């Protein structure tokens, strides 16, 4: 097991901040322990009276992974000497222009009255001018916590990373699915991010209207005007939520850029240093102006670095292409929402013609720009319902290679793709294209697993549904060994979730586990493996009888199967 040491060094002025960060990082130790990383956070006292302990700690710091120094208004000379010694040590250990370990991160909290001692001011100047070391600013301990978590993730290089989820008052920071004790309202850079504030305000207003219309629509589904209005607002609601999620990702990308320069691997221009400090102070508009791509490209040309200029141009091209794709995805979502509204109206020739135009437009956009498969699955389903099998086959023939499509649609866009693949798999099965259905289910299951690592609910339920469908498909195709393996994965998933959610067990995971055991027993029975069939049916019967609300029909069915099995033997 790998051991990772993090040293915290702070003057008595910042004891509360040091304890807050230490407790936050120490609380993550069990999370990283599951990944084979033993994370330890240690406080360093430069005035330790025992010289052997003091020297032992200095040697540990030389071999640790991350050293964090916090300052407010003053600096202890011994702390300053140790900080500069460690920075020099990382330079000596570095290779190919990159520093060695430990990473040395310095954080300066804004003093209450703006005054600092001359010694601290001189230290800050030496760090910038003498060592090319980037030092961080923070006005509140929650800004420090967020920055430190990002730096720790970069240092450990394991797990899925940091996310911001939710909207409005429910917004929070998560690491690998765990909510962290960080109040974003106290993080200056987050408060100052105008795009998030504006989107959040728009989303709140839209959310109120969406909830109100949804309630009205539940009670009056025959009002065409209400239905169309609800469809438009629902589409806007989903679009705003996606925009808000992208804004969170862009914001975290900026903070990750700051975490990346904390290792001291590349000297920063004065312009970039100014931009990052402005961001940490909450002046995000000014920071974004400085970080404008044209300014970065101009810096690259000024430095006579053709590589950086090409890199900046490629980044601009990628950014524009992604923005274009996101706009197209929003357009596809709007068209599908319009089709949903039309589908709920009476099935007339004019209505079918309008639906077909809408679905074709959505599917053509999706296919041309390789955005996913959900619109194509909707169009194919339309042809299936109309019994137009020639057109149905034409749509299915044009579906892109699924493996390549998954690679081209990373990150949050996997959610729509996973749902689309599941729908496509069901359609393939309906038209008896078993091999294509299996491939689509397998691709959907891979995405469900990936999404479920960070957000088990609802993706574990989608995973369970797709696993169940795949087992039945394999059995139908006579692929019994593959069906058995998928049944076992389903059973393991259901057992794990039933233990984690005991209150849901009678209705969700417990009953799903019983069904999986029963179906696996029947597979064993069909293939002549009677002892294994009896074992699984017996376990299913035991669990069914333990449920707080037993399903009497299910218990009767399993009991009858066991009786028939005993009679045959």
From TrEMBL:
**What Gene3D superfamilies does this protein map onto?**
Tetratricopeptide repeat domain
Q: Which UniProt keywords are listed?
A: Repeat, TPR repeat
What Pfam families does the annotation carry? TPR_7, TPR_8
Which residue windows are transmembrane per the record? Answer: none
Spell out the coiled coil positions from the record: none
- UniProt-listed SUPFAM superfamilies: TPR-like
Keyword Cytoplasm carried by entry: no
Q: Which InterPro entries match?
A: TPR-like_helical_dom_sf, TPR_rpt
* Protein name, UniProt field: Tetratricopeptide repeat protein
**Organism encoding this protein:** Bifidobacterium platyrrhinorum
């Amino acid at each position: 097991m790998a051991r990772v040491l993090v040293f915290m060094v702070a003057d008595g002025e910042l004891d509360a901040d040091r304890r807050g960060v230490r407790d936050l990082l120490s609380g993550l130790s069990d999370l990283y322990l599951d990944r084979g990383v033993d994370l330890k956070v240690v406080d360093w006292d430069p005035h330790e009276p025992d010289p052997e302990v003091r020297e032992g700690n200095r040697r540990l710091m030389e071999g640790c992974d991350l050293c964090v120094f916090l300052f407010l208004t003053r600096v202890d000379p011994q702390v300053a000497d140790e900080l500069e010694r460690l920075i020099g040590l990382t330079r000596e250990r570095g290779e190919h222009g990159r520093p060695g370990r430990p990473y040395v991160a310095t954080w300066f909290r804004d003093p209450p009255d703006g005054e600092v001692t001359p010694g601290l001011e001189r230290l800050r100047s030496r760090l910038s001018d003498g060592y090319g070391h980037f030092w961080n600013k923070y006005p509140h301990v929650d800004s420090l916590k967020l920055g430190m978590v990002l730096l720790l993730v970069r240092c450990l290089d394991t797990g899925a990373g940091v996310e911001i989820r939710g909207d409005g008052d429910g917004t929070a920071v998560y690491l690998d699915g765990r909510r962290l004790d960080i109040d974003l309202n106290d993080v200056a850079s987050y408060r100052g991010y105008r795009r998030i504030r504006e989107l959040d305000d728009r989303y709140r207003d839209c959310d109120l209207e969406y909830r109100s219309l949804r309630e009205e629509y539940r009670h009056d589904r025959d009002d065409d005007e209400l239905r169309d209005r609800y469809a438009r607002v629902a589409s806007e609601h989903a679009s705003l939520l996606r925009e808000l999620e992208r804004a969170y990702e862009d914001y975290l990308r900026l903070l990750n850029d700051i975490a990346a320069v904390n290792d001291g691997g590349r000297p920063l221009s004065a312009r970039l240093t100014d931009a990052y400090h402005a961001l940490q102070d909450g002046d995000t508009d000014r920071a974004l102006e400085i970080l404008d791509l044209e300014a970065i490209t101009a810096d690259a040309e000024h430095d006579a670095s053709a590589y950086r200029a090409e890199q900046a141009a490629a980044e601009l091209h990628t950014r524009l292409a992604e923005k274009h794709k996101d706009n197209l995805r929003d357009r596809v979502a709007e068209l599908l929402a319009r089709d949903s509204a039309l589908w709920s109206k009476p099935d007339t020739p004019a209505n079918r013609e309008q639906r077909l135009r809408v679905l074709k437009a959505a599917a053509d956009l999706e296919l041309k720009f390789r955005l996913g498969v959900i619109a194509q699955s909707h169009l194919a389903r339309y042809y299936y319902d109309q019994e137009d099998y020639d057109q149905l086959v034409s749509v299915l023939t044009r579906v892109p290679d699924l493996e390549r499509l998954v690679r081209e649609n990373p990150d949050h866009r996997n959610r729509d793709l996973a749902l689309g693949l599941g729908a496509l798999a069901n359609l393939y099965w309906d038209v008896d294209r078993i091999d294509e259905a299996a491939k689509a289910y397998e691709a959907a299951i891979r995405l469900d697993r990936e999404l479920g690592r960070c957000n088990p609910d609802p993706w574990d339920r989608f995973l369970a549904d797709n696993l169940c469908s795949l087992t039945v498909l394999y059995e139908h195709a006579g692929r019994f060994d593959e069906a058995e393996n998928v049944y076992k994965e389903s059973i393991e998933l259901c057992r794990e979730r039933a233990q984690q959610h005991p209150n849901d067990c009678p209705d969700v995971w417990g009953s799903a586990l019983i069904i999986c055991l029963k179906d696996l027993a029947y597979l064993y029975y069909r293939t002549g493996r009677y002892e294994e069939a009896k074992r699984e049916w017996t376990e299913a019967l035991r669990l069914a009888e333990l449920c707080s609300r037993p399903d009497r029909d299910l218990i009767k069915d399993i009991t009858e199967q066991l009786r028939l099995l005993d009679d045959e033997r």
